[in-house]
């Protein structure tokens, strides 16, 4: 059910214009983006340690809690937020697509800065990324179809789930397999290149998103206030959902931090790659809102994640000082 108000109507009308914008994005740009995503996933795979799963297998509740928070609750709260905000169709689908994507690779780095459970973070990234080959298309098809059924005015979503599954497998599955095999075959080399590859992937992805926004800078400046508010709310609710659900499941503070970050840091680069794949989303669709939401999310979740890490890191230090350098209470 929609919640109508003058603010909602104004927001929808403003973003309708954004949906109709034809973005400046070439096939060469899509190729570069796909290569960037593949390199990022290769770097994620290098850090997958199957031995680290043993503790989580013996005590799987933190892993299960993180998976439910990210795979089930995030799309659900995204759908509810859409029902309240009533944005344009393109913006709404962009929000749903981001929510359906697995966790971003920067989440492991932010968990480390936050003094969270890094082993849990890496495990959640690994599980959600591998399962995203199937879960991302299914989640988007379910919630996107449910959203489209709420109003006869919306254009029906006709996305080929098989093509999306194939694309996700190429972008995620193949690099993950290659990275895992490389780390098993060359463990010493992997240890030397792990940090440089991780930093390089974060920097390259950030530069790519900034470049994509720069190519459409005039449109971005015109609508940034609307996009900013929506992504701010969406990302904030995602982080809050992760923290509250982890608290409800009686996780300790380290695990709460990690589940919060994993729920709020999404692989928006994958969302952009899917949006600009013509075999999935035909280019005659109104993709402007989807692309701008995914692109700005890619920038904002780094800002919000680093801000949260700074807050938790300072709080962690203050607790140590207050307690006389005793370990932090769980």
Please summarize what this structure is:
The protein is mainly α.
Question: What can you tell me about this protein's structure?
Answer:
This protein is an all-alpha fold and 330 residues long. It has one domain (24-322): Na+/H+ antiporter like fold (Up-down Bundle). It is 78% helix and 0% strand. The protein is built from 13 helices and no strands.
Kindly estimate the percentage of residues that lie in beta strands according to DSSP: under 5%
Helix amount: over 70%
- Gyration radius (Cα, Å) is 20 Å
- Care to count the β-strands? 0
Largest sheet: none
Counted up, domains total 1
Q: Could you say what the CATH topology is called?
A: Na+/H+ antiporter like fold
- CATH class membership: Mainly Alpha
Query: What is the first-to-last residue Cα distance?
Result: 41 Å
Instruction: List low-pLDDT spans.
Output: none
| pLDDT averaged residue by residue | 77
Instruction: Tell me the structural class.
Output: mainly alpha
- Overall shape: globular
- What series of H and E elements makes up the topology? HHHHHHHHHHHHH
Query: Which oligomeric form is depicted?
Result: single chain
Indicate the CATH architecture.
Answer: Up-down Bundle
Number of helices: 13
């Amino acid at each position: 059910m929609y919640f109508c108000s003058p603010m909602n109507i104004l927001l929808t009308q403003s973003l309708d214009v954004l949906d109709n914008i034809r973005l400046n994005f070439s096939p060469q740009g899509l190729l570069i983006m796909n290569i960037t995503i593949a390199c990022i996933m290769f770097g994620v795979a290098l850090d997958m340690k199957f031995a680290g799963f043993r503790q989580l297998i013996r005590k799987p509740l933190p892993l299960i809690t993180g998976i439910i928070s990210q795979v089930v609750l995030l799309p659900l709260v995204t759908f509810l937020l859409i029902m309240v905000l009533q944005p344009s169709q393109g913006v709404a689908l962009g929000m749903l697509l981001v929510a359906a994507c697995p966790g971003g690779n920067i989440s492991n780095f932010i968990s480390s800065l936050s003094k969270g459970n890094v082993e849990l973070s890496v495990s959640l990234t690994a599980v959600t990324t591998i399962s995203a080959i199937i879960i991302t298309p299914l989640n988007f098809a379910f919630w996107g179809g449910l959203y489209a059924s709420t109003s006869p005015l919306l254009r029906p979503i006709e996305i080929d789930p098989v093509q999306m599954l194939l694309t996700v497998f190429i972008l995620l599955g193949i690099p993950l397999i290659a990275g895992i095999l490389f780390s098993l075959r060359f463990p010493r080399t992997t240890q030397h290149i792990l940090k440089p590859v991780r930093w390089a992937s974060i920097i390259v992805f950030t530069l790519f998103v900034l470049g994509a926004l720069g190519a459409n800078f005039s449109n971005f400046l015109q609508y940034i206030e609307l996009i900013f508010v929506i992504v701010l709310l969406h990302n904030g609710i995602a982080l809050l959902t992760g923290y509250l659900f982890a608290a409800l499941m009686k996780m300790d503070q380290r695990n709460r931090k990690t589940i919060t970050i994993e729920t709020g840091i999404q692989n928006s680069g994958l969302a952009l790659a899917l949006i600009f794949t013509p075999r999935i989303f035909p280019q005659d669709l109104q993709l402007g809102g989807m692309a701008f939401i995914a692109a700005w999310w890619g920038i904002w979740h780094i800002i919000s994640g680093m801000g949260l890490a700074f807050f938790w890191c300072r709080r962690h230090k203050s607790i140590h000082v207050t307690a006389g350098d005793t370990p932090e209470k769980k």
